[in-house]
Structure formats: C-alpha cells, structure tokens
Specification:
single chain; about 140 residues; alpha+beta; 3-stranded antiparallel beta sheet; two-stranded antiparallel ribbon; 4 helices; about 35% helix; about 25% strand; elongated
Length: about 140
C-alpha cells in the first residue's frame, strides 16, 4: 500500500469518527436546545393593599405599644388565610387589632414557574403610641 493510500485511509477514519461524534452529540440534545419558557424565576408575595390596623384608643392613653408577629398563608388569590399570632405584643388588644386588620389585606401571590402558589408569610405589625394623646384620655387622668 502506498503512503498516498495510507493518508486517504486515515482521512476516511477521521471523517467517520467525526461523523459518529456529531451524531452522538445531536442525540444527546434530544431535539434541540432547552425550552427557556419553562425557566421562569420564582417570586415572593407582594403586598398590594395593607392598611394599618386600628390603634386601640385606651392603650394610647397609657402610652402602650408593641409588635405582634403574625404567621399566615397567602393563597393563590392573594388573600391571607390561617392567620395566627406567632409572637404576642404582650397586649391582647394589640394582638387582636393586628389579626382583624390583616384579614382584609391583599397580596400578589408568590409564583413558581409563572403560576401562583400558596406561601407562608411572617409579618411583624408594630404599634407605636400616637404623638398626640387622644382627647378621651383626659378622663382617665381624673
């Protein structure tokens, strides 16, 4: 066999190996590039309408405040459910006022793969006594 024939033989083997490698790579792709439309990043719930709770006037008269730690589930419709006090403020009236207010709050729900999902959420609700003492407090001073 001449050196020219040997060179052609090596070229044929290289071409065959390259073709086989390309076929293996194409088979590994399983039909092309991945579908990036399914790779939507998850999101957390977003507060849309969260008016502050009513401050119990009788506590304002005595300069009482505190923080209530609430735990709730935000449903796929953005409404809070299963709301409970996780950490009390130390004042039952503040705890109840926080619970009452949160019932009507609205959220944009969390999402996974672009679809809304229910999510647990911890929310601190802080009550600070008003800067100006309510007029009704003067009756307690007598």
């Amino acid at each position: 066999m001449s050196t020219h024939a040997i060179g052609r033989s090596h070229t044929s083997i290289r071409t065959a190996l390259l073709g086989t490698a390309l076929l293996a790579l194409l088979a590994a792709c399983e039909g092309g590039p991945p579908d990036t439309s399914m790779m939507v990043p998850p999101t957390q719930p977003v507060a849309l309408d969260t008016p502050p709770p009513a401050y119990p006037a009788e506590l304002a008269c005595f300069d009482r405040g505190g923080t209530v730690g609430l735990l709730m589930k935000i449903g796929v419709d953005g409404s809070p459910a299963d709301i409970r006090v996780e950490t009390s403020s130390g004042h039952p009236q503040l705890d109840q006022s926080a619970l009452d207010a949160v019932q009507g709050w609205k959220f944009r729900p969390a999402t996974r793969n672009g679809n809304p999902v229910a999510t647990d959420l911890r929310v601190p609700v802080t009550f600070s006594p008003p800067d100006v003492r309510p007029e009704m407090c003067f009756q307690y001073d007598e």
